[in-house]
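Long-time lurker. I teach an intro course on protein structure, and each term I like to show students one example going from raw sequence to a predicted 3D structure in token notation. This year I'd like something fresh instead of my usual example. Would anyone be willing to generate the tokens for the chain below so I can use it in lecture? Attribution to the forum is fine with me.
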Amino acid sequence: QVQLVESGGGLVQAGGSLRLSCAVSGRSFNLYAMAWFRQAPGKERETVATISRSGANTYYVDSVKGRFTISRDNAKNTVYLQMNSLKPEDTAVYYCAARGGVGLLVRAYEQYDYWGQGTQVTVSS
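-- Reply from a regular --
Happy to contribute to a lecture. Here you go:
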């Protein structure tokens, strides 16, 4: 019984910034590795970033390296995605996901157990 609620999406101009938040219910947040995925219309779901249980290890897809930062606050049961220097190609629905397995930085969406409802990010030219 784990629920994820995302917030922070919106419409921004190219070069702008957004900070997505994902609040996780339950008492086992520190046992879950977390990830952000995104999906644009007509495109496959893409792994954007992952973070280990402790927050010490992270992964980013090449296209967002240097621009996006994933972080977590285990005391607040929340994971964040800070997005800077946004580009129109970043436009997508962004999903937060959680998994309880032992993998350090699992990237495959099939391996994630719980999902948020998604939040729309639109970057205008």
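Some talking points for your students: The radius of gyration is 13 Å. DSSP finds no helices and eleven strands in the chain.
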